[in-house]
Amino acid sequence: MGGPPLRPDRSTLRLALVVGGLVLAVLLGFGLGRLNPPPSTASGAAPTAGGHTHPPGTGAHSHGGAAVDQGTAADAAGLSVSAAGYTLTPSAVEFPVGRAGELRFQIRDQRRRAVTRFAVVHDKPMHLIVVRRDLTGYQHLHPTMAPDGTWSVPLTLTEPGVWRAYADFTAVADDGGQTAVTLGTDLTAPGGYAPRPLPAPATTGTVDGFTVAYEGTPKAGEPTPLRFRVSAGAATAPLERYLGAYGHLVALREGDLGYLHVHPQSGQDGDAVTFQLTVPGPGRYRMFLDFQVAGVVHTAGFTVTVP
Ligand SMILES: [Cu+2]
């Protein structure tokens, strides 16, 4: 028997090994890539621990000393149930109109675990804003958390329609890293929805017998100081500290209900309270100022048009 033994020749074997190795490398690379997504570094942006990017000059900033990863300050937030690896999961979103109910939700991380560690920002670990989609019925609530990470808060949707709920929080990861996120979800109050038009733009408003006026003209794309003053009759109303400042401002964009970044200026500014507002682009916005006088919180609303 003179024939050679039946076995692949060396070059076929080498080719098989090379192809097999390539396939393995691609599979491994794909798997690792999914576990550890490479940071995007488009347009010179600096990668951050949270896996998203900040344009130069708008990097992560701090609340109370710890580094906090935040979205670009010029972007609106609250447009998604998931962002920066966190997901808002309400247990129910339908509420009978005008009936006292309870909103319950969790914040889940990338591994679908309920988050239980939150940083206290503006005196609270969780701020919940609820407003109907026509920007009426504004509520600013502070849910409480059960040990398993389930947040709950009494909630009444006062009129029929679709409402938007924003969970504004700073999550603390296992490694101690902090991520400031605002997630949003729709809630529904079934019934006939009769949307109301936005009130006309004004820099003065009245609420509960107080007159609230502000100075400052928001411009698209740059932080603008807005200075609010509250008066009762002829006298200035003495503002009290509320949520760690002399007032709390939320601004929402008409059209998509984007939630804007607002930062209170620390300290009291005479009898006024000042915020830095960054408006992402032209449009109409509704601002809500919560302020406290004599132990009671009041909310003034303002429509502002940004050209
Ligand atoms: Cu709050």
Coarse morphology: globular
Instruction: Provide mean pLDDT, rounded.
Output: 82
Number of strands: 22
Radius of gyration (Å): 25 Å
> What is the terminal-to-terminal distance?
93 Å
Helix content: under 10%
Helix tally equals 1
Verbal overview:
By secondary structure, this protein is mostly beta strands. It contains 1 helix and 22 strands. It has one helix spanning 10-35, and strands at 46-47, 53-54, 61-63, 66-69, 82-83, 86-90, 101-108, 126-132, 139-141, 144-145, 150-155, 161-172, 178-189, 204-207, 210-215, 224-232, 235-236, 248-253, 262-264, 272-277, 283-293, 296-306. The chain has a 6-stranded mixed sheet, with no helix packed on it. Strands 14, 15, 16, 17, 19 and 20 form a 6-stranded antiparallel sheet that branches. A 5-stranded antiparallel sheet has the order 5-6-7-11-10, with no helix packed on it. β8 and β9 (139-141) form a beta hairpin. Bound molecules: copper (II) ion. The site of copper (II) ion (CU) has 6 residues, from loops.
Write the layout of secondary structure elements.
Layout: H1 10-35, E1 46-47, E2 53-54, E3 61-63, E4 66-69, E5 82-83, E6 86-90, E7 101-108, E8 126-132, E9 139-141, E10 144-145, E11 150-155, E12 161-172, E13 178-189, E14 204-207, E15 210-215, E16 224-232, E17 235-236, E18 248-253, E19 262-264, E20 272-277, E21 283-293, E22 296-306
Parallel strand pairs: 4-13
Antiparallel strand pairs: 1-2, 3-4, 5-6, 6-7, 7-11, 8-9, 8-12, 10-11, 12-13, 14-15, 15-16, 16-17, 16-20, 18-21, 19-20, 21-22
Residues 122, 124, 127, 140, 142, 243 line the site of copper (II) ion (CU).
